Amino acid sequence: MTITTALVLLACTGGGDANDGVPSDSGAGDPQALVEPLSIDFGTLPLDSSADAEGSFTIRNVGRGVLLIQELAVLGESSPFAVVSLPSSSIASGEAIPVGLGYGPLTPGVHSDTVLLRTNDPDQPEISIALTGQAEGPQLTLAPASDVAFGDIPLGCDASAAVTMTNTGTGPLEIGAVQLTGDAAFALDLMPTENGTLPWTLAPSGSVSVQVAYTPTTEDSVTAELRVNSDDPVHEAVERAFSGTGTTSGLVEDTFRTAADVDFLFLVDAGSGTSGYLTQLRGDLAYLTDQLRRENAAYRVAAVVAEDGCVLGDPLFFDETTPSNTQLSIFAAQTTGSSHSLSDELFSLGELALSETGTGGCNEGLLRDPAALGVVLLSARDDQSSDTTSDALAALEAQLDRPSQLLLHGLVGDAPNGCESATGAVRYTQAIERNGGEVGSICAGDYGGTLRNIADATTLRARTIFPLSQAPVPSSIVVQLRGVERDTGWTYIAEEQVLRFEDNIAPVVGDSVIVSYAPLPDTCE
């Protein structure tokens, strides 16, 4: 509806002449004002955008002098009532004029106000006319009533505000759309579980709430706007602005020199069916270590065959500093054993062996951080444990602080049909392929190719993983490889606090990697 500004007229009394445009009332007797009616009811109006309701009253001069209208105004501020017409500000004796009124409500409910008439009538200089009216229809009201400023929010934290939409009108209100536009740091949750899907229909006094969240990704000041569209006849759309600024306590810079640190743990089936293949592995082990040397890798190699998961003998492992002939003798000693209950359950044996690598365990000191870990299965039969392959793999990963360091490999029977005296290792093969490792046939006459592939894949994994010194705000991470900033080709793994490069852009040994970021705050209070 249209609100018409109240009409205020001022007229001078006395002292007029023929040229000033204001009639003189001197010497002609006193004017007398008569107003009819003294109250006006505009009735009930629908709250829509149609024309205002109209009303009027009459001012009659029943006196002898000229009646001058000095003031005519609606008293209330932001009133839905208004004086819309007044033909003249002076009324001769015996004459009358109509005063036009308008009623243009912008809110539902009962409205009342007063028109004050002030004239030069000496006996009754002020006359009040009572105005009433009622409007019916829906009305959308948002809370909070003003824009929302989240203020300074540390990167890594977030803030949220509920916006409640209430029908403060007298008829049903339909909300057709709720949209948030602006910076991507703001997000809108329509809460469909509680609210259902749009459109929403609200009865009078009914309400519905949504959430606007702010999660800063930069130190910039950013804004967004929430827009609610409804069938409110006065305000088709209602908006609320949101603002916020991201803050940090400074940046952390982690500098790395790429290395290829790898640890290997062979899990060996001690059953009699594997013994011949184990002899071949011992003879071909140099293929693995030679390839590791070509990769400039710092490595450790150990094997587990015993039921308790402990590495047999002393030392616990051999490394790149161990002479070749000594490496073989250590490996032979570690892989000498007899069959037991876990011989055909290498997943379970591996879980047990890895659980012993911590402080106080029999394999303490075997694994390094952040070295990649290659677990190599050697068996002429498939795994017989009851777990699914995904659960078995998850159990191995659960023993590590950083599961992404694990690569599962195998020299096992060809899946699904097997080969020579080896059965098809369907479960082992599924787990290896799920993990992304290398699988080779245990029946191959030469393990050299598979062992070289195992060395390459594991050193590649080592060159892609970079543990960060502090937990970062992911959106703040900036990566430089060989002095060039890289926006893509890497992923941050929050659960492990590591940056991992994609294999196709993995740094080579000696490459410089610099990772800068804003650290997560200790608290978001």
Description:
With 525 residues, this protein is of the alpha+beta class. The protein has four domains: 33-136, Immunoglobulins (Immunoglobulin-like, Sandwich), CATH 2.60.40; 140-247, Immunoglobulins (Immunoglobulin-like), CATH 2.60.40; 252-256 and 466-517, no CATH class; 258-465, Rossmann fold. The chain has helices spanning 192-195, 275-294, 324-334, 346-355, 389-397, 426-435, 448-462; strands spanning 33-36, 39-46, 53-61, 67-74, 81-85, 90-91, 96-103, 109-119, 126-136, 140-143, 148-154, 159-167, 173-182, 186-189, 200-202, 207-214, 221-230, 237-247, 252-257, 260-268, 297-304, 318-319, 372-379, 406-412, 439-441, 465-467, 478-481, 484-486, 490-493, 498-501, 512-517. The strands form seven sheets. It has a six-stranded mixed beta sheet with strand order 22-21-20-23-24-25, sandwiched between helices. Helix 2 packs antiparallel against helix 3. The radius of gyration is 43 Å and the shape is rod-shaped. The two termini are 47 Å apart. The model is unreliable at 1-27 (pLDDT under 50).
What can be said about this structure in brief?
With 525 residues, the chain is of the alpha+beta class. Helix content is 15%, strand content 38%.
Which word captures the global form? rod-shaped
Within CATH, the superfamily of the largest domain carries the name von Willebrand factor, type A domain
Mean pLDDT level: 92
Given helix and strand content, the structural type is alpha+beta
- CATH class of the largest domain equals Alpha Beta
Low-confidence stretches: 1-27
- Helical segment count: 7
Radius of gyration: 43 Å
| Extended strand count | 31
